[in-house]
Specification:
The protein is mainly alpha-helical. It is 54% helix and 1% strand. The longest helix is centred in the middle third of the chain and has 20 residues, at 537-556. Belongs to the adaptor complexes large subunit family. Residues 58-593 form the Clathrin/coatomer adaptor adaptin-like N-terminal domain.
């Protein structure tokens, strides 16, 4: 507000000096500056708008007054109010011959209008005329307006004049012409693609301002295509050298630094050109070294140049001497008292350690100071640096620090990022199994549901797969450590849901594997989890499935299993649950408890979560069923592209879609109605509706089909007499469109169970020779506390230039290459039956009129056809799934089942495993976790043979996936 007062006073004082502004404008600015509230300010501005609306429409307004009105309009717009009523007057002022008025008009329109405004078309002609003016000030004003107002459509109108001005004798005009071309390139690169050579020529302009303006478009062009401008490296180096040697006029200095913004732009360009190019980088070494030596670090702009120089050195081919100079400058940044310089130093150090990790040793204490700094931004940047510096020797200290910081912050977004980094570092550099399990427990416990669900999936996969080597003892130790740690923390309150799911899965798979804990103890803990989280159906589902697996392992081992009272009450409660998923799990648990050990072992084998499953994509195991159905009289499968014209239930869906497409808006004119010709022949009895108007293109057909040969024909004379006049009916509602309806063939979604997830490798670093000169002798020794020395030794101790690799005996396997193909389900069933083709054309179900029955042709009842259509479809469906008999009454429960009830029993003995996998591919989803997979087998007391129903899902249960309550098929959100 003080600035507004100052502007107003200056303008008023200028008016007294001859600028032509009245005291009324001063009073306006003063009253707005002294307003005590926004409402009062709005009231003053609205009063001023009313005054201007009245005065600006008066005839014969003096130009001096109109100029003041335009300035007052600018002031109103600046305060956020609408002054569009005066835009046209600003456009008119650009046509004035007076330079002062013209520049005022251009200033106003550039502030008022945008490139898409409707008034732009009125300014293009004025700009074209002013670009050819003899007064370079007028040309400059027009070029300024060009950069602001010219859009992609109007670029060709002014482009020739702008290109011609590149050779103008005034350097200000050439500079603004370059800026205009750069603006054209930003809006429409194709419009100036043939003018790239002009930028190269202007790079050698005698005026430094023109040369500096040319660097901006060249920087954009080099970013897009680096290789096309490699020949300009020498030119850029020479320009940078001249600038650094102060050969430019003093007017380009800023805080005693020679053209600092030109230097920064050149360093950015050289970083792009020298990346990955040793020859180009060698040409830059000398000038970069001179900047390091001569640049003044006492000012902010000097430090900005040094920082940009460090970024350039870290981007080009490395040079030991330049890396030493960059490290020295980085050290000064880190030791500075300014947080801004420390931030720059941390960022620069992160760039340098990618080239030479040894540089971090010289600045370890400074990094510790930044880590303990109260500035949160600096602390976050330091954690990013430590993330890049992590290796097996310091992973424990860094991850512990990151977890402590994660606990202390409340920003959920950054907490999620810190948690993911902790998990990544723990997976790559974990020194021991126990530390890894404890670290993951801390992350899950404190980050809660902010942890990515893929992290839980990776953790379960890693526990299941172990190290991926032949060391079974180490794998068993890892699982035992996980079980013990989970049993200690399972009773803690407010554990996140994802973590509880992991705990239940691990306890169910390996709770009794080592014999340390009894089955009753594990099931009791799982019952406590289900009771404590009664509102979370997913956790309860995991807990019940884990209880079933523990019981199954005990039964398979020949031991008697007796459920605890609390477990029995839990099962009884879930058996009456509103969730069908929980109901099914409870019934399955009761069914498993009543089976013999051999059946249980085949259903839930021990530690089978990592087994690979092969699936026949072509479903060749169903060939026998297909042949048997064909022998019984079923119609062969017709591919989708050959089903044109066949009447089936799915065609009605296509009919609706086709009708929706034909009812779209049409914009062509209606045809004139044709005059009706009265029939001169006597009336005769009309045949049936199907004979009267043959249906040549049913709306539910996919493509146009010819009429069957059996269609009753009508003679030419009879057609003239009997055919209805329907010429205008179809055209009234528009012509039918050619869009084909979506295919109605149902397909099951493709599902994959990948046995391993590729883990990205650690970042590699390029090792260079160790610096000859140590910085320990250059810096002064300071008194350090023992705690900081110990922390620094933990973070940076044992640093070497060689990239460390984890020993195979302690590394955690995060990837596993499956030797067998990935599990996939086929998108379509092996057979699909369609209804037979009708001998007569389908009835027009939309014709609600009463049909006239003729003596020769009986009418067709459409509802009878629908009944036959539904009946034939059911019979065909039963034959597809290998029904025992055609006279067998339909099983209503089978309509809701995803798989047939007797596929497994009917399969050949030698293909039992493959039949099991493929028959269950639509009902279950497999992955590597192990657990119950939400099969739709008939539970106990609801089906005739529970043992067959459970053995059918045996191999799928080996995968151990636990579905969620919300999705009975699979807990997919955990699996990513």
């Amino acid at each position: 507000m003080e600035q507004l007062k100052t502007i107003g006073r200056e303008l008023a004082m200028g008016s007294q000096g001859g600028w032509g502004l009245s005291k009324e404008f001063l009073d306006l600015v003063k009253s707005i500056g002294e307003a005590r509230s926004k409402a009062e300010e709005d009231r003053i501005v609205m009063h001023e708008i009313e005054i201007l609306k009245r005065r600006i429409t008066e005839p014969d307004i003096p130009k001096r007054k109109m100029k003041e009105y335009i300035i007052r309009l600018v002031y109103i717009e600046m305060l956020g109010h609408d002054a569009s009523f005066g835009y046209i007057h600003a456009v008119k002022m650009t046509h004035d011959d007076s330079l002062l008025l013209k520049r005022t008009g251009y200033l106003a329109v550039t502030l008022f209008l945008n490139e898409d405004h409707d008034l732009i078309i009125l300014i293009v002609n004025t700009i074209q005329k002013d670009l050819k003016s003899d007064n370079y000030l007028v040309v400059c004003a027009a070029l300024t307006a060009v950069c602001k107002l010219i859009n992609e459509e109007t670029i060709p109108a002014v482009l020739p004049q702008v290109v011609e001005l590149l050779g103008h004798q005034k350097e200000a005009v050439r500079k603004k012409a370059i800026m205009a071309l750069h603006r054209f390139y930003q809006r429409a690169p194709s419009s100036v693609s043939h003018l790239v050579s002009n930028f190269r020529k202007r790079l050698c302009d005698n005026d430094p301002g023109v040369m500096g303006a040319t660097l901006c478009p060249l920087s954009d062009l080099i970013t897009v295509d680096v290789n096309s401008y490699k020949d300009l490296v020498v030119s850029f180096v020479n320009i940078l050298k001249q600038v650094a040697e102060r050969r430019l006029p003093k007017s380009y200095d800023y805080h005693q630094m020679p053209a600092p913004f030109i230097q920064i732009r050149l360093l950015k360009i050289l970083a792009l050109l020298g990346s990955g190019d040793k020859l180009a980088s060698e040409n830059m070494y000398t000038v970069l070294g001179d900047i390091f030596r001569k640049c003044d670090s006492s000012s902010n702009i000097g430090n900005a140049i040094l920082y940009e120089c460090i970024c350039c050195v870290s981007s080009i081919h490395p040079s030991p001497k330049l890396l030493d100079a960059a490290a020295e400058v980085t050290s000064r940044f880190l030791k500075s008292e300014s947080h801004n310089l420390k931030y720059m130093g941390i960022d620069a150090l992160g760039r340098l350690i990618k080239i030479n990790p040894d540089i971090a040793e010289e600045h370890q204490l400074a990094v510790i100071d930044c880590l303990e700094d109260p500035d949160d931004t600096l602390k976050r940047k330091t954690f990013e640096l430590l993330y890049k510096m992590t290796k097996s020797s310091n992973v424990e200290v860094i991850v512990d620090r990151m977890i402590d910081y994660m606990i202390s912050i409340s920003d959920n977004h950054y907490k999620t990022e810190i948690a993911s980094r902790c998990v990544e570092l723990a997976e790559q550099f974990a020194p021991s199994n126990q530390w890894f399990i404890q670290t993951m427990n801390k992350v899950f416990e404190h980050a809660g549901d902010l942890v990515n669900v893929k992290v839980a999936h990776n953790l379960m996969r890693l526990i299941a797969e172990g190290f991926g080597e032949d060391d079974e003892g180490a794998d068993s130790q890892l699982r035992s450590s996980a079980v013990e740690s989970y049993l200690r923390i399972i009773g803690e309150p407010k554990l996140p849901s994802v973590f509880l799911q992991v705990i239940c899965w691990v306890l169910g798979e390996y709770g009794t594997a080592d014999g340390k804990f009894s089955a009753s103890y594990i099931t009791g803990k799982l019952c406590d989890v289900a009771e404590a989280h009664s509102n979370d159906d997913t956790v309860k589902a995991y807990a019940v499935t884990a209880i079933m697996k523990v019981s199954a392992f005990e039964i398979a081992a020949g031991r008697r299993v007796e459920l605890l009272p609390e477990c029995q009450s839990l099962i009884d409660e879930l058996s009456a649950s509103h969730s069908t998923d929980l109901q099914q799990r409870a019934y399955e648990l009761q069914a498993v408890l009543g089976l013999d050990p051999r059946a249980v072992e085949s259903i839930l084998p021990l530690d089978a979560s990592c087994e690979d499953i092969e699936v026949d994509k072509n479903l060749s195991f169903l060939d026998n069923y297909v042949q048997q159905s064909l022998q019984n009289g079923a119609r062969p499968y017709v591919p989708e592209h050959e089903r044109v014209g066949m009447l089936n239930i799915s065609s009605f869906k296509s009919q609706d879609q086709h009708e929706a497409s034909t009812h779209a808006l049409r914009f062509e004119a209606y045809e004139l109605p044709k005059p009706l010709v009265p029939a001169r022949t006597p009336a005769v009895p009309l045949p049936s509706s199907t004979d009267l108007v043959p249906v040549s293109e049913p709306t539910y057909y996919v493509k146009e089909v010819q009429q069957p040969a059996s269609l009753p024909s009508v003679s030419d004379a009879g057609q003239m007499e009997l055919k209805l006049r329907l010429d205008g009916v179809q055209k009234k509602w528009g012509k039918p469109t050619c869009s084909s309806p979506a295919p109605s063939t149902s397909s099951s979604s493709s599902q994959k169970a990948v046995n391993g997830v590729t883990q990205k490798d650690g970042q590699g670093t390029l090792n260079t020779q160790t610096r000859d000169v140590s910085y320990n002798s250059r810096r002064t020794q300071i008194e350090l506390s023992p705690e900081k020395q110990k922390l620094a030794a933990s973070l940076f101790g044992g640093t070497s230039s060689k990239t460390e690799k984890k020993p195979s005996s302690t590394s955690l396997k995060t990837t596993r290459v499956s030797s067998s193909p990935q599990v996939e389900t086929v998108a379509e069933h092996a057979t699909e039956k369609t209804a037979p083709v009708q001998s007569s054309p389908p009835p027009d179900l939309l014709d609600l009129g009463e049909p006239t029955i003729s003596g020769g042709t009986p009418s067709i009842d459409p509802f009878k056809q629908l009944e036959e259509l539904v009946g034939s479809t059911q019979v065909s469906s039963d034959m597809n799934y290998g029904a025992v008999s055609a006279t067998k009454p339909p099983d209503l429960m089978a309509l809701y089942a995803d798989t047939p009830t007797n596929v497994v029993n009917s399969a050949p003995a030698n293909m039992e495993a493959v039949n099991l996998v493929s028959a269950l591919s639509n009902a279950t989803t497999r992955n590597v976790h192990g657990g119950i997979t939400g099969t739709h087998s008939t539970p106990l007391k609801k089906g005739p043979n529970p043992q067959d129903s459970l053995e059918k899902d045996a191999l799928a249960r080996q995968m151990g996936v636990t579905p969620s309550g919300k999705n009975p098929n699979l807990f997919r959100d955990l699996l990513g």
